[in-house]
Amino acid sequence: MRINLRKYATELSYWIDALKPFIGKESHRALSALKDQLENGRDNLRPAFDWKLDRPIVTKEAERYDGPDKTPHKVKVGWQFESTFESDGQSKKTSLWNIKKMVTHIRIYNADDDSEILHFHHDLKNREQLGPHVHMQFSEHYLKNKGRIPIAVPRFPITAILPTDCFDLVLAEFFPFEWPKSQAGSHGLVTLRSNQRTRLIAITEALQKQWEASPKLTPVSATQNCYMPDLQIA
């Protein structure tokens, strides 16, 4: 899987501005630093570099995620990710990098005491692993820590793999009324919509190729064990 880091850095700057109203001010600096971290790794001409959040960025309290007239338990959502980009030898010229790792962790916290209620992650599999290339699954470590069996399945196919797309999904779920209104006034919304749309179309077309290459499987079964190394997500 590949990514154009020059193009994505532009997109990222708009995401940073759009996300700030939904996180605590104490996390604004860490959020803003992500763009410099990405660009420094990209421009230092190293064979590979990591781009990650060492500590979760936590949203403000969410309480209207079940509906406008409901009052569910107040929660906060933690967003954290780890990724590794590797040069293909032409990255300085093309800005295209191979994605060797990309996993985004989402943690749901009880707003009353900050205890962890749930932990799942969006991940890319390696060639030798089972499951959809892009998938979401519940954290095995979380299940083990809760005294449960640390089972790795089900691995749910998903289209959100970039950390910012994963946060977009989270905000749409936990702030279903505020996030759309805030998005509508976001600076660079045209760029965000265009790039994300291109990404989703590319994933869909890659999946169609997987289905055509597996004529003895249903599309659902083919999706549950697929690998798309040539896919470019930005």
Describe this entry's structure for a reader.
With 234 residues, the protein is of the alpha+beta class. Helices cover 38% and strands 23% of the residues. The chain has helices at 5-19, 28-43, 91-94, 140-145, 163-174, 178-184, 189-212, 219-223, and strands spanning 2-4, 48-52, 57-58, 75-87, 96-110, 116-124, 134-138, 156-157. Strands 1, 2, 3, 4, 5, 6, 7 and 8 form an 8-stranded antiparallel sheet that branches. The protein is globular and about 50 Å long.
What is the strand and helix layout of this fold?
Layout: E1 2-4, H1 5-19, H2 28-43, E2 48-52, E3 57-58, E4 75-87, H3 91-94, E5 96-110, E6 116-124, E7 134-138, H4 140-145, E8 156-157, H5 163-174, H6 178-184, H7 189-212, H8 219-223
Keywords summarizing the entry:
234 residues; eight-stranded antiparallel sheet; globular; 8 strands
Shape: globular
Please indicate the percent range of residues in DSSP E strands (runs of 2 or more). 15-25%
- Number of distinct beta strands: 8
**Considering DSSP H and I runs of 4 or more, what fraction of the residues is helical?**
25-40%
- Give Rg in angstroms: 18 Å
Describe the main β-sheet briefly: 8 strands, antiparallel
Q: Which assembly state applies to the chains in this document?
A: single chain
Low-confidence stretches: none
In brief, what are we looking at here?
The chain is an alpha+beta fold.
